[in-house]
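Fold Annotation — chain and its backbone

Fields — amino acid sequence, structure tokens

___
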Amino acid sequence: MYKYILFDLDGTLTDSAPGIIRCVQYALEKCGKGTCPDRELLPFIGPPLTESFQKICGMTAAEANTALEYYRERFARVGMYENSVYDGIPELLQNLRQAGKTLA
């Protein structure tokens, strides 16, 4: 039916939540905001981070920008690697390629 299939990576093919949450925790600690349970930080996944720091943590725009810098500091070193492929995805992609689909 479809020849071309386009996938989003985060949350579709891979679970990036652990890395995102750990980077948010790191940023909060560096900003002196303490820590939160992981489940309370799940809303950070998806929306722009500066908006989430403001809305969820009550930060000012300047504080949120500082938090974003700390987030990126850890993400570049470690966070991007705290990401795993969901079970069954490699087989799904292989089956789709074998069926002649173009994947992107």
